[in-house]
Amino acid sequence: MRMSEPITTIPHYRVKAGCEDEFLAILDAHWPMLRDLELVTDLEPQVFVGSEKDVEGTYVVEVFEWANADASARAHQHPAVSKVWESMGPLCEARGGRPPFEFPNFRRAR
Fold first, then answer.
1. Is 1 a domain residue?
2. For 57, 75, 86, 108, which has the most beta carbons within 10 A of its beta carbon?
3. What CATH number does the domain containing 39 carry?
């Protein structure tokens, strides 16, 4: 993989009851900050709200592109990004044997 290829990430968030609006407001500010720091591509994120089979609670899925394979690591080192991510933690919970959040990354197959 070349360093300049975008990496699609599809975070999954298990949001606590009553915290959906606050969580979504954080997501609304999340991507513009990552964009200003040139960590993500210009492709606007997609956010989906739903539920998991046989598990109660709000389930949020976000889809966006890191600018390259190194961008996620750089984001983890930036204090402003860390502050936003830390604010997400208390709004999420483990459910159905799954962690509060998951962050799988993908590359386009074609």
1. no
2. 75
3. 3.30.70.100
The yes-or-no verdict on residue 2 having pLDDT over 70 is no
Give the number of other CB atoms < 10 A from CB of residue 13: 24
Q: What is the pLDDT of residue 107?
A: 80
How many other CB atoms are found less than 10 A from the CB of residue 102?
Answer: 12
Q: Which residues span the domain enclosing 101?
A: 7-106
Q: Are 13 and 89 in contact (CB under 8 A)?
A: no
Rounded to an integer, what is the distance from CA 24 to the centroid of its chain? 11
Task: Note the pLDDT tens digit of each residue in 44-77.
Answer: 999 999 998 888 889 999 999 999 989 999 999 9
CA 67 to centroid of chain Cα atoms:
14
Determine the pLDDT at residue 3: 52
* Cα distances (angstroms) measured from residue 71 to each of 37, 55, 78: 10, 33, 11
